[in-house]
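Researcher: Quick test of sequence recovery. Tokens follow.
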């Protein structure tokens, strides 16, 4: 296993202010701040908004939201101890803006219309593909509130391909069934008429970012992810960035 220095792409100037070692130390998914910085272009976040960071992991995205956009954040994650997440927020100087809670995505402990925006980076694919989930998650948004996700994606859906491509199946198995295209997500949300989709796009450099991040990281499945990405060469794999208004 080899590790490279993490070089921050110039197209992410906000993220470039953060220590790469700090970012990698909070890793629970590929390049979360690069994804969030790109997604935020379509979210129109404003100071004072209350934002749910759903699947917030070890907290990098919540720190970024608080610092860069002046919003208050509820950092909700099932797998990370809220005490440890809170320590990250204190160290980053945003403890007054970010609250850490343990929560499962189907049993969120919030009142209806509680948030101006809900953001989900590197997590929505685990629960959001269900036909009924959009109706559930949008109940926590105020009318006019914004929903934004960044999720691993394939440029062609598995159902259209007729199989999970071998190089992807060897790494993630059946979970690739949840890696849908931006067009798939657009239809999946728009058909409900619960939201108006404001953007749905595949990241042009998503595959390259994913590979750059993985080569610099320390995840236990690093070698298999690198092998998958190198075999793909950007043909299928990227990220879908999708936003909508309730």
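Model:
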């Amino acid at each position: 296993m080899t590790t490279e220095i993490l070089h921050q792409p110039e197209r992410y100037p906000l993220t470039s202010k953060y220590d790469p070692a700090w970012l990698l130390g909070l890793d629970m998914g590929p390049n979360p701040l690069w994804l969030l910085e790109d997604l935020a272009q379509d979210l129109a976040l404003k100071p004072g908004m209350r934002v749910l960071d759903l699947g917030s992991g070890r907290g990098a995205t919540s720190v970024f939201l608080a610092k860069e956009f002046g919003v208050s954040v509820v950092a909700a994650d099932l797998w990370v101890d809220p005490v440890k997440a809170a320590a990250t927020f204190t160290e980053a100087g945003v403890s007054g803006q970010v609250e850490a809670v343990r929560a499962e995505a189907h049993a969120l402990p919030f009142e209806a219309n509680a948030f101006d925006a809900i953001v989900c980076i590197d997590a929505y694919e685990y629960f959001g593909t269900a036909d009924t989930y959009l109706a559930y998650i949008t109940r926590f948004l105020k009318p006019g509130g914004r929903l934004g996700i960044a999720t691993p994606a394939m440029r062609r859906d598995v159902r259209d391909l007729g199989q999970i491509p071998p190089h992807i199946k060897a790494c993630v198995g059946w979970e690739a069934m949840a890696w849908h295209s931006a067009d798939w997500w657009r239809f999946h949300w728009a058909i409900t008429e619960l939201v108006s989709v404001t953007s749905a796009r595949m990241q042009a450099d998503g595959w390259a970012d994913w590979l750059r991040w993985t080569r610099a990281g320390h995840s236990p499945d690093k070698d298999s992810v690198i092998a998958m990405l190198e075999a793909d060469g950007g043909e299928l794999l990227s990220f879908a960035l999708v936003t909508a208004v309730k």
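The mean pLDDT is 96.
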